[in-house]
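REQUEST FORM: STRUCTURE PREDICTION
Request ID: SP-0412
Submitted by: Lab K.M.
Chain count: 1
Length (residues): 568
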Amino acid sequence: MGGLRELAAAFVVPGPSGVAIRAGLKGLTGQDETVLRQVGALLGSLASRDLKVRCAAGSAHVSEQWAWRKRALTGQSSSRWAGSITKATHDQWALARRSQLAHIHSLRAGVETITHRLAQPVGAKGAKGTPGGYRSEREWFAKSRRLHVLEDRLERVRADWEAGRVRVVRGAKKLLRSRHHLRAAGLTEAQWRSRWEAERWFLQADGESGKRFGNETIRVTPGGEVSIKLPAPLAHLANAPHGRYVPACRVRFRHRGEQWADRVAANRAVAYRIHYDVDRGRWYVTASWQNPPVTTVPLSAARAGGLVGVDMNADHLAAWRLDTHGNPLGAARRFDYQLTGSAQHRDAQVRHALIRLLHWAARHGLALAIEDLDFAAEKTREKHGRRKRFRRLISGLPTARLRARLVSMAAGLGVAVVAVDPAYTSRWGAQHWQKPLTSKNRKPTRHDAAAVAIGRRALGCAIRRRTAPPPHDRSDRVRHRTVQAASDALGREGPRPRVPGPRTRSVPPGRGAKAGDQCAHNRSGHTAEHEPWHQDSLPLSPWERFGSPRAESRRLTGAGRRSGSGPA
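STATUS: Completed
RESULT:
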C-alpha cells in the first residue's frame, strides 16, 4: 500500500437495541404536581444515599452487598422501587468507571505526545504521522510546564482507578459548578435551586414482562391512564386501591404509539420515567423498551442496486447516489442543519436533516453509506497544537448523536446503513472525483466528491482513478490508461505495477513477453546464445553464405558497428 494505513472492512450497522418515546402529562392539577414532587424528592434522597454506599464499596462490591442495599431500601419505599434505584445506581457507577478509564487514556496520550515533541529540537519538522518539535522556545517552555500538570493529573486519576474510587454527582457536575457562577449562567439562586432539585428527583421504574400492562410500579393503560405505586412513607396520599395514585390526566404517545399499545396489551415489559422540565414548566413521561436482536441485512444485499454515499460535515450532509459499479448518478444533494442555539434546537435540526435524507434514499430503495467516525482522540490540543479552528470544527461535529439518530430512524424506515473506514475519503475524493464530475452546469464541492468516495468504498470499488493518457497519444508509452480495478483485486488501492513489453492494443496477446529481457536481443554485453560465438574454420563465398553482395555489405557494416570500428 506504499505507506497507507490498512483500511477496515465495510460492515452493515446493526439496528437500535431499544426504543424511547415521550409524551406530555397535560391537565395535571395542583394536587397531582404536589404528589409527584414529594414522591420524586423522597426517592431521590434514597437514590443519593444508595449511590454513596455504592461508591464507598468501590470495585470490591459483590452481589451480596447489592442484595443488602436493596433490602435496606425496601423498607423505606417498596421492593420494586428499591430494585429500580439499585439498578440505576449500578449503571451510573459503571458509566463513571468507563469515563474514568477514557480519561486515563486521554491523559496518557497527551503526556506521550508532549514528551516526544519536547525531545525534538526546537523548530524541527515532523515526519508523516509523527509530530516534530515546537516552533519556539517560549512554546517549548509552556509545554514543559503543561507536561508536569498532566503527569500530576494522570497520577491522581490512576490512584482513583486502582482504589475503585469514582467522582459522581447526581444532578450533573456542570449544574453544580454553575452555583458559584450564577451571573455567567444567567440564573438566579431560586432558578438554580429549582433546576437542582428537579434533576435530583427519582421517578423511574423498570418494566416487568408478564405483569399487568408491563409495569407494576408506574402503570399506563392502553387508554392513557397513569397510576403510580406510592412509597410506604407516602401511602396516605393514595387516591386509588392498593396504595396507588392516579393523576387527573391522560397520556397519548403520538410517535410509535401503535407499537407501545401492542406491548402494553400483551403485558410485555415497558420502562417509564417521569420528569419535570423547568424551562417549560411541564411534566413528561418517557416510555422505553428493548428490541429483540434482529439479523442485519447482508452486505451483498445492501450493495445490490447501488447505494447513497453520505459525507457528514459541520453544517450539512452531502449525499450522492451511485449505481452498482460505483458510478455517480444524477446530481449531488445537500441537507443543511444549524448546530446553534439550545440543545433541543440542535437536536431538531439534526432530525430534520436526517429524515429528508432517509426519505430521499427510501424513494430510490437504496442503502446509506456513512463513515465510521470517532473524534474522541482527535480533539486534544496536544495533537493539533495551535489549530484551534480545526479543533473547534471537529468538536462541533455531532458524530455520536447523528450516528445514533441515523441508525434509529433508518431502522424505522427499513433503510440499511453501511459503515466504512473514513481514511483518505476527503483527500482522494477531491483528487480523483471532483474535477471529472465538474461540468458547465454542475460544480461539485469537495464534500460532494467525498460522498462519492465513501459510496465507492462501501460498494467495494477502488476510490483512486488511474491517470488517463494525454490526448495526443492514446498508447501507454506516456501514462497508464484509466482502468478501474475489480473489487477482489489485491492492492487495487495501490499504484499499477509496470508490466514489461508492448502495452498497445495493436499488439496481439502473447507478443512482446520478452520485451524487457535484454538477453533475448543481440545487444552489446548481452549475447543471444548462451554458448561462446566462434569464427567458421572454412569460410564460404559471400554468394554462398548470404546470397547477394548487398547482404554481404549489410553484414560487414553491422559487424563494424558491433566491434566498435568503422567500415573496412
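NOTES: The longest helix spans residues 79-119.
Reviewed by: T.R.
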